[in-house]
Write a structure and sequence with these properties.
Layout: H1 9-15, E1 19-21, E2 24-25, E3 34-42, E4 46-51, E5 53-55, H2 58-61, H3 64-78, E6 90-94, H4 98-111, E7 117-121, E8 123-128, E9 137-141, E10 152-160, H5 164-175, E11 179-188, E12 194-195, E13 198-205, H6 219-223, E14 227-228, H7 234-253, E15 259-260, H8 276-279
Parallel strand pairs: 3-14, 6-7, 6-10, 10-11, 11-13
Antiparallel strand pairs: 1-5, 2-15, 3-4, 8-9, 12-13
Helix pairs in contact: 3-4
Length: about 290
């Protein structure tokens, strides 16, 4: 088992069986299912976007050395040299569920760089049950932990998708009398670099196409039920990965119907700021970390 995260986020996810991509024939037919995303749009109610690719960091959570290396790489890239005007304390708020374990690892790695860090996580509360197998509507609450008044709050996610977590974490920060400073994540798959007016800082930025369910590119598959609405739970994920690997094996061996694999040459934007302060505007107005 490869537990080295130095090869890049996607390459590492593949070694953990955490990367899924639809296999298509030369004619464009999907031979493996679409996947549902958390993001929604309005169309006679809330409907979820779908797509051909899924980044499942749950599989990386199972390998602590991988998660720790992601955290260390992030800290080395963005926190290696504390600023004199950096805040005395950061509060990193993990977005449930994917940001919780990464928050703990990231907080330890950033503390090693000389910053005062508090790590907590929000909890998810169901607002409305999903229909026809689609996802539930949820919000974030603080019950186990509190946010300290006046602190600089940074939301933490594994993957930044539709930036809805940023809105919910900002609300928690403001209700606590704290300042929201942005989002950090291992992978930003959205086409944006800001959330709620603040920066998204990621190890990798890979804008990933998502479709409305009525888009002609996916409508036939949706009608045929060729979609896994909740790919992340292991009961859904393991069969999904098995289908992908089986289709890839057939393609490798050759078959009556030729296969193609959608080319994956994403735009990868490694954030080049050396420290958080150059990425998060608010961080510039605070004092340096205390030193004994």
């Amino acid at each position: 088992m490869n537990q080295n995260a130095d090869g890049g986020v996607i390459e590492t996810l593949k070694t953990c069986d955490g990367y899924y991509e639809v296999v298509k024939s030369h004619s464009g037919k999907r031979l493996t299912p679409l996947v549902g995303y958390a993001g929604t749009y309005d169309s006679e109610g809330k409907l979820h976007y779908v797509g051909d690719v899924f980044y499942n960091f749950v599989r990386a959570e199972r390998q602590p050395l991988v998660l720790r290396r992601f955290a260390e790489n992030f800290a080395r890239k963005h926190f290696s040299h504390p600023l004199h005007d950096a805040p005395k304390s950061y509060t990193f708020v993990g977005a449930p569920e994917g940001g919780i374990m990464f928050t703990a690892m990231l907080g330890a790695a950033i503390a090693d760089c000389g910053y005062a860090v508090c790590t907590i996580f929000a909890q998810k509360q169901k607002v409305q049950s999903g229909e026809a197998g689609q996802r539930d509507t949820t919000t974030f609450i603080l019950d186990r932990h509190e946010i300290e008044k006046g602190s600089l709050v940074i939301g933490v996610e594994d993957v930044c998708n539709n930036r809805s977590s940023a809105k919910l974490i900002k609300k928690l920060a403001e209700e606590s009398g704290a300042l929201f400073g942005g989002i950090v994540c291992m992978l930003n798959r959205s086409d944006q670099t800001q959330a709620e007016g603040e920066p998204i800082i990621a190890l990798e930025h890979i804008p990933t196409v998502q479709y409305r369910q009525d888009n002609p590119a996916v409508a036939e598959d949706i009608a045929a039920g060729n979609v896994v609405w909740k790919p992340k739970p292991f009961r859904n994920w393991l069969p999904l990965i098995a289908k992908m690997k089986a289709a890839q094996a057939v393609a490798t061996q050759g078959s009556q119907e030729a296969f193609t694999f959608p080319p994956v040459e994403p735009r990868r934007e490694f954030q080049d700021s050396k420290v958080l302060g150059t990425g998060f505007p608010e961080a510039r107005s605070f004092g340096a970390p205390d030193s004994d």
